[in-house]
Amino acid sequence: MTRSIETMMDFFLREKGELIHINGVKQTALIRDAVDKIQLGDEKIVRAATLLHIGDFIDYRNERYLITSEIDHNKQSYRSRIRKCNYNIAFNWNGNVKWFDAIVEGKTFSIDDGKMISMPEGTIHVYLQDNADTRAITLSQRFYNTHQPFKVEGIDRTVNGIIKLSCSLGSISTPYDDVENNIADRWKYEASHTYALTIDNGTTANVLINDILQLNCTVIDDDHPISNPSITFSSSDPSVVSVDNEGKVMGIEAGQAMITARLTYYPDVQDTIQITTVETMTHTYTISLTGNPTIKIGQSTSYVSHIYDNGTEVFDQSVQWSLRNQEDTTPIMGSITASTGNSSTVKAGSSSGYINKYIVLIATLTSDPTITIEKMIQLKSLL
């Protein structure tokens, strides 16, 4: 007697399943191209042992998909249709810009005969995951797609898990819109920012197979720390090292991968760390320095060293502090007035000739002088 394929799903998922992430959580699933009367290159069928919902995000082979159909399920698995998100769209709420993975279409399908139906010129449909952020979108709200302005004309929330926007081509607000970066009204609310993001765990770290390393990041805006920044993490090879939306890194199998942390709404602001997955751990120390990158002449600022062993901060190591001019000239345009194994206080010289020049603070690991880190510090006017 022929065995039903449904009863063999556990076997297929275990033996033939591929790695995906469902709303950021790693899972195994079977993925195939959608095969029916309506065929689209960006549509696939997903089958997984875990519960699926309309509107779930599926990350598969470095692409993001949205579950768009009802869920078919049996005792062994859940099955649904997914469509690739083909655009990333920004909505602006009085200066609070948020980006959304979206499906944007300028044409739609006839359910009866599978033919393409053209919508009025300048009209698009946008499909978004239904969540707290997208529920804040309102009628007449403006956004950009492919450097063209659109206005929300209709909002359809009849399908649980998905919001469908009907949108028409609008007009450019020349003084305020950032057309190049597809952000409506950006300059209406946003002042000039200088963001910087640093992964505090250093530039390299090791992680044991099946173990977890927590990445910590510091984000500053014009030298001022930002609390609870929105950061997106990614791995150059998720089959070797995975990372979730909270910066938890897991070693999957022996090898190396580069983890990138980006400011979610300013993805050009980023930092990287090379993670090596190992079977046994040896010491790998790195140092990071925190403190203001500027000092006014004649004044003092404190700096703190953080020492990491394989990306995890340790407190049984110390550093030696030193100072030099950027151009290695003398005399040194500042001094270390106080120091411990973990912190130092640097005082800038008082000469007006030092303004806008740089000194370099150096921290050297006491137990291994080959491990150092330098921090450039600009001397500024008192005004």
TrEMBL record:
Residues 215-261 form the BIG2 domain. This is Ig-like domain-containing protein. Coiled coil: none annotated. The lineage of its organism: Bacteria, Bacillati, Bacillota, Bacilli, Bacillales. It holds the Pfam family Big_2.
